[in-house]
Amino acid sequence: MNSLRDLLQQAQQSGAAVGHFNISDLVLLKAVFAAARELNVPVLVGLSEGEREFVGVRQIAAFVQSLREELNFPIFLNADHTRSLAKAAEAAKAGFDSIVFDLSALPFQENVRQTKQAVETLKAINPSILVEGEIGDIGTGSEIHDAAPDLSKRLSSPEEAKQFVESTGVDILAPAVGNMHGMLRSMVQGETKKRLDVERISGIKRAARVFLTLHGGSGTDDADLRKAIAAGINIVHINTELRVAWRSGLERGLAKQPDEVVPYKILPSAVEAVKQVVASRLKLFAGERHAAQGI
Ligand SMILES: [Zn+2]
To answer: What are the residue numbers of the active site?
Structure first.
């Protein structure tokens, strides 16, 4: 089995990005895994601190590892938005493949200092773990927002990206390039789309020379996502779109069978709804390689 680092490298060479999907229950995990297997592309599942709290850190690690080993399939596990070294170390010890260490809310120099320390600590636990650092402001909460926060003042520059990567030793960088966590109501309805600063991504890639993650990918214009991947984005995070599909699929399952109480008869509607979203995003991220394989 290739390592996550190798897969990111391969994806980069073929003009593709690896999809990262947040999960907080078995419905979401089943949906992501099924979509990735059908399309035969590697996939990352991620859990934020809140999502890990709900599912169990060691329990989800055991679950994902069993899927990976039983089916020899490249599914990897990421500790998303981890804000303390203790929580990051807990995930690393449980066997997570990568850690998003997010101190982007702190002043830049403090973010650098503590992220560098986290890289050292986490690599001592597992030398092959990938550590991602965060700079700039992309908002918080993978939820539906009524109004867009003004994030324009804290977009990332190529200079600070370079300085951050060189000072901390992170393997992956998450910049602020027009992306935003969560979705506006108008985006859920499909009336508006997020737009990305592709020039900025190119500049950051040239300066920082590491893998780049795009957070808050939900509701982003498809063409912008393809351009962002061509400009150097290696991982795209999708969460809110899945949550919206999870809820509507669940509501459909309940409405279809108003007297049913058997979970495994109700929940497939939710799995199917989420799986469709994941599959369409994975196809987009796979790009030319995908087309070349004729999938
Ligand atoms: Zn994120």
So the answer is: 80
Query: Ligand 1 centre from 195 Cα, in Å?
Result: 16
Poorest-pLDDT segment among 42-56, 130-144, 271-285? 130-144
Full-model pTM: 0.95
Ion ligand 1 nearby residues (CB, 5 A):
215
Whether the Cβ atoms of residue 133 and residue 88 lie closer than 8 Å to each other: no
Cα(177)–Cα(271) distance, integer angstroms: 31
pLDDT digits (tens, 9 = 90+) for 249-261: 999 999 999 999 9
* Ligand 1 center from residue 175 Cα (angstroms): 11
Is residue 238 within 8 A of residue 31, CB to CB? The reply is no
pLDDT at 281 exceeding the cut of 90: yes
In Å, how far are 109, 137, 157, 162, 202 from 199, measured between CA atoms?
A: 25, 18, 11, 16, 5
- The Å distance, Cα 81 to ligand 1 centre, comes to 6
Calculate ∠ Cα 289-81-52, nearest 5°: 100
pLDDT tens by residue, 105-149 = 999 999 999 999 999 999 999 999 999 999 998 988 899 998 888
Instruction: Compute, in angstroms, the gap from residue 140 CA to the centroid of ligand 1.
Output: 8
